[in-house]
Amino acid sequence: MHTVEDTLLDRLALSAAAEAVYWAMLDNPTWDVDDLVTNLDIPETVAHDALSALADRALVTPSVTRPGTLRAVSPKVGLLTLLDQAEQQMIAQQAKLQAVRASFLARAESHDTHREREEIVRLEGVDAVRDRLAEHACTASESFMTLTTGRAIAPEAIENGKTLTRIALSRGLPVRHIYQESLLSDAASRAYAELMAEEGEQSRVMPETPVRMTIVDRQFALVPIEPRSGRGALEIRGNRLVSALCLLFDMLWERSTPFPSPPPADGHGLTDQAVAILRLLRQGRTDEAIGRQLQLSERTVRRTVRDLMQRLDAESRFQAGVEAALRRWI
Predict the structure, then answer these.
(1) Which CATH number fits the domain 119-259, given the four candidates 3.60.15.10, 3.30.70.1660, 3.30.870.10, 1.20.1330.10?
(2) What is the pLDDT of residues 250-290, one digit of tens each?
(3) pTM higher than 0.85, yes or no?
(4) How far apart are CA 2 and CA 117, in angstroms?
């Protein structure tokens, strides 16, 4: 019965016939090819092939004492040689694998560098959130969209909201705001919403808003760390998550109703406020004077005048008043 070397020979890629020939020659040093063919019951070509494979691996060598014949090398000597060869092959293969691994990791790292990632930044505390929103108000280039929930807006939040909204509006950014209906039952919150709408915020209201959040430029979304807490907010950056929140906002916007409710218009589509502004334009009044007389903010007057001039295709404010009179709008 052979030892563990049997298994090693198999692992070193020797055929079953070559292994049988090798062990037979070790056990029977005087056997020649004919003896191997007869005793192992193998074809002569198989015996020659086996001897050739064994010679290639230095497991058989020419006999000195019996010229013209081959002898089996001691397993310990022959196997050590084979193992050394196998080890060198494994080292070379390992080096190749390491090179492939390094190349793969380099390409994977390059792919990760260019891939857009979702990123969530934790803003601890109310002050950090307000500072970040103020920064967005000063740097945003496309839009501000806000969802507000709850029964009332805290006084300090109202003041901060006024500041942020005015900064964004002064930079020409469209500001859209959806309020939860219950907020309007609070006098201070309703007054804030009405004031912001008067100054140019596009406001809407719905029975329930699912979450409080602000979306900036459709690229950043700020949501509370915990609802109804002052722990801070999570700022989400990245296309997938923010796009989903934008889709939610747009869907809610379509389902909400304008706030305040638009005043009734006449047969020309003009509100009483627009008609009054046109009459004062015809008199050559300034925006400041019109606002003071009608108790409107100057911003509201400017926006209304701009819209009226576009409708009347007028190049000046005075021309808008005259054209409105010619069309019998006033």
Answers:
(1) 3.30.870.10
(2) 999 999 999 876 555 556 678 878 888 888 888 888 888 88
(3) no
(4) 61
Q: Which two tokens stand for residue 72?
A: 């089996």
Sign of CA dihedral 135, 137, 140, 144: positive
Q: What's residue 72's pLDDT?
A: 85
Residue with tokens 């699912």: 210
User: How many other C-beta atoms can be found within 10 angstroms of the C-beta atom of residue 285?
Assistant: 20
Report the CATH fold assignment for 1-115.
Arc Repressor Mutant, subunit A (1.10.10)
Identify the CA nearest to 137 among candidates 102, 156, 161: 161
Torsion of Cα atoms, 43 then 46 then 51 then 57, to 10°:
-160
Per DSSP, the chain holds a count of helices (H) and strands (E) of 13, 10
The pLDDT tens digits of the residues spanning 181-199 come to 988 889 999 999 999 998 8
